[in-house]
Write a structure and sequence with these properties.
The complex is a heterotrimer of chains A (257), B (256) and C (273). Chain A has 257 residues and is an alpha/beta fold. Chain A is built from eight helices and ten strands. In chain A, helix 6 links the parallel strand 7 and strand 8 (188-192). Classes of the chains: A alpha/beta (257), B mainly alpha (256), C mainly alpha (273).
């Protein structure tokens, strides 16, 4: 379980006090085990910052961030991140990229490669093990990123707008694939997105954030059934939640100076 | 903001202090009694600037070649670079020569220039030009080529004529790279000025250096070199300042 | 002087590398032919001017070639070349070690960058030949002077390029590695090193060109044995053909070493575009 209590994050504050940017203010929420939470909010609301704090990549000034009651002080083996711009090593092939997390932790070559091949097959990239990232499309590259994250067997997946850099068609395919993977093994997922459809389609709950300084405006439960059928977007419940999100988001945009 | 600037200078001065300390240490262990300490160099510089009229005379003579040579190199190099970039056939023809001239050192050919032009100002100017020209041309050309073709397409779509495209798109777009070339060219020109004087044409600063060197006055040698370094840095800073004023928009990518 | 961080002088070697590069094999073959034609045309013009004008300082191109062949045959070039090349290698090796090390530190740690950037930039832009009299005063007429001059010529372009190479590694790659539990040294070996290779190689190639220039300039200034001294000697004898020939030898050294590094670079950075 991820617990965030009273979290405050300020950027660029020096010892002399003033001049910083308050990114997050008194954030409070919990993510239960095996839950899929999507996070949405206007640009600049700090959702990516929040994710990186949970990932242990940046520090915070006040509050508590803990995983199963252990405070977060840095990255850890129970969490893995999927990045918006894929962050693949351009000089290594697909296999080498997927085994990266395992190699860093000192796994033997045989073990890591076996595991990697399994996952490469799972994300549908069998046969591409020896290709370099530059030979792959955006969608394929992100699948490598996903395989890499899954390879280290994390309990928690932190996904930072993972499909944001892809075209709509690829995005939809990957959403479906992600849901399929998640149904197989329900990890805890925190998924940042800009897209309301995506937020409702994927999540058990949607966390709606306010503009900077980011706060949690509302946690909206999504009572749609699992596994999500492909035409879920046409259902009345879906549209209702989506419209609710848009109303709130639009109101927040016009509030901005 | 001020605090940041002060913070930066802390480590910088530390490096300087360490360098000076290393120098003094090296001095104390060296057999060479002629090597000057920091204070010797400083007093030498002071003496040079305020009490040595020959220094200013030498400076004047040397800089004549520099100014004429550099100006010539700029007046030939920039147009040449611009044209080469716009005329593909000419560009491809000149390409191998540029590549060769980039790698080839001009210094061994200085004696030949002397044979051709004698020992006067003309030879020195020619050598300064030959040191600087290639870099100015190449950077200018690169600057023009770095302009996004879509910008030119866009201008044409609005009906712009060739001269307008040049004035509004090509020249401003290439300006940062041109300035980079000018800066590098200036450094090269100063190199040429110093080289020819030290090698063969004993006039100006080169002659002064050779004299001090011959008379084993190493503190004056150091001081003179320091003076020329200061002049070089001052000129280059001035150029950078000029560049900020005229073309403040892009970072520098330079060849050389 | 307002300090300009070294990052503002990124040096790319597009000129020397991408001679007429364009898509399509046929077009590149045609471009290549044009370049060769251009050089041949130059040689022909040189030859005819040499014969027709009869100037002392412009011998026909063929005479230069003859002098070149004579040199190579007589072994005179070889002995001078040997001593020149030895200093070149030592000087360049020293500047590689120092340059890569300092550049890497400057690229990775802001403190180091702030401490050294003013000096590195100043030494990079000011004409390196100015240090020749200084080294002569310190080391006298010895190999140490030569090596020191070569060092000053080539080090700073390597420092600046290496620093920029490391600094411009995509931050998301570093973050990604950190998220998977990489320690500092692992980030260095697994991410920074491979990612910075293309630009570092650019710096090495430029440094090599500078080292060759430093070698010849230094030798001419301080009358050593070596190619520079030979050039001086023949210049004093007004033997222009021989001087041109020596310049060509130096040019060949420069081109060969450049091609060598370029080949190495292609093999190691096939993944870059």
């Amino acid at each position: 379980m991820i617990r965030v209590k009273n979290l405050t994050k300020e950027f660029g504050s020096m010892d002399n006090g003033g001049g910083g940017v308050l990114a997050l203010s008194s954030i409070d929420f919990e993510v239960r085990d095996n839950e899929f939470v999507t996070v949405i909010g206007p640009s600049g609301c700090g959702k990516t910052t929040l994710l990186r704090i949970i990932a242990g990549l940046i520090s915070y000034q006040h509050g508590e961030v803990s995983i199963d009651s252990h405070p977060v002080v840095g990255p850890g083996p129970e969490r893995a991140v999927v990045f918006q711009n894929f962050a693949l090593l351009p000089w290594t092939d697909v296999l080498g990229n997927v085994t990266f997390g395992l190699d860093v932790r000192g796994a033997t070559k045989n073990d890591s490669q076996a595991k990697a091949k399994e996952l490469i097959k799972l994300v549908g990239l069998e046969g591409f093990e020896r290709r370099l990232p530059k030979e792959l499309s955006g969608g394929m590259q992100q699948r490598v990123g996903l395989a890499r994250a899954l390879a280290v067997n994390p309990r928690i997946l932190l996904m930072d707008e993972p499909f944001g850099a892809l075209d709509e068609q690829t995005r939809r395919l990957l959403q479906e694939q992600l849901l399929q993977l998640w149904e197989r093994e329900r990890k805890t997922v925190v998924f940042i997105t800009h897209s309301m459809e995506e937020a409702v389609m994927l999540g058990d709950r949607v966390m709606l954030m306010t503009p900077r300084p980011g706060k949690v405006k509302e946690m909206i439960a999504i009572p749609l059934k699992r596994p999500r059928p492909p035409d879920i977007e046409k259902s009345a419940a879906f549209i209702e939640i989506k419209e609710y999100l848009w109303e709130n988001l639009r109101a927040m945009q016009t509030d901005q100076p | 903001m001020k605090k940041h600037a002060l913070r930066d200078w802390g480590p910088r001065l530390a490096v300087l202090a360490v360098a000076v300390a290393l120098w003094e240490y090296f001095l104390s262990r060296s057999q060479n009694f002629l090597l000057p300490t920091f204070s010797h160099i400083a007093t030498g510089l002071f003496h040079l600037i305020f009490f040595e009229p020959r220094f200013w005379e030498a400076l004047y003579i040397s800089n004549q070649a520099l100014i004429f040579g550099y100006a010539t190199a700029v007046m030939i190099g920039v147009p040449l670079g611009l044209i080469a970039a716009r005329l593909p056939w000419m560009d491809r023809f000149l390409n191998p020569y540029f590549a060769v001239l980039l790698v080839m050192p001009v210094a061994p050919l200085i004696p030949i220039v002397i044979i051709a032009l004698g020992l006067g100002l003309a030879a020195r100017v020619f050598i300064v030009v030959s040191f600087a020209l290639v870099f100015i041309t190449i950077n200018t050309r690169a600057g023009v080529r770095s302009i996004e073709p879509t910008l030119i397409e866009m201008a044409k779509s609005f009906g712009a004529k060739e001269t307008q495209i040049w004035r509004r798109i090509i020249v401003p777009g290439a300006l940062p790279a041109i300035f980079a070339g000018l800066r590098i060219g200036l450094g090269r020109a100063i190199t040429g000025m110093v080289m020819v004087e030290l090698l063969l044409v004993a006039s100006g600063l080169g002659r002064l250096l050779l004299e001090f060197s011959g008379r084993m006055q190493s503190d004056m040698v150091f001081a003179t070199v320091l003076a020329v370094i200061i002049e070089a840095l001052a000129l280059l800073s001035a150029m950078q300042f000029l560049e900020r004023k005229i073309a403040p928009w892009a970072p520098n990518i330079s060849i050389g | 002087m307002k300090s300009v961080t070294a990052s503002e002088t990124v040096v790319k070697t597009t000129a020397a590398r991408n001679i007429g590069s364009s898509p399509g094999l046929q077009r590149s073959v045609r471009n290549y032919a044009l370049e060769v034609f251009a050089l041949l045309a130059g040689a022909v013009i040189w030859e005819s001017l040499g014969w027709s004008l009869g100037l002392q300082w412009l011998p026909p191109f063929s005479q230069v070639l003859v002098a070149l062949v004579q040199f190579l045959a007589s072994g005179l070039i070889l002995s001078n070349l040997q001593s020149s090349l030895l200093s070149l290698i030592v000087g360049f090796a020293l500047s590689l070690v120092f340059g890569l090390f300092l550049g890497a530190l400057m690229g990775r740690y802001r403190v180091v960058e702030k401490a050294f950037d003013v000096y590195v930039h100043a030494l990079f832009v000011c004409p390196s030949i100015l240090f020749a009299p200084i080294f002569f005063a310190i080391f006298g007429l010895s190999d140490a002077s030569r090596i020191a001059i070569i060092f000053v010529y080539s080090t700073f372009v390597i420092v600046i390029n290496t620093a920029t190479a490391i600094r411009t590694v995509e931050p998301s790659l570093v973050e990604m590695a950190y998220s998977f539990g990489c320690r500092e040294h692992q980030i260095f070996t697994r991410i920074l090193l491979p990612a910075s290779l293309p630009l570092v190689f650019a710096g090495i190639r430029l440094g090599m060109g500078r080292a060759v220039k430093g070698m010849i300039n230094g030798e001419m200034l301080i009358a050593f044995v070596g190619l520079g001294a030979l050039a001086q000697k023949y210049g004093a004898q007004f033997d222009a053909a021989k001087v041109f020939a020596i310049a060509m030898v130096v040019l060949i050294i420069g081109l060969v070493s450049n091609a060598f590094v370029q080949a190495l670079e292609s093999r190691l950075t096939r993944w870059a575009d």
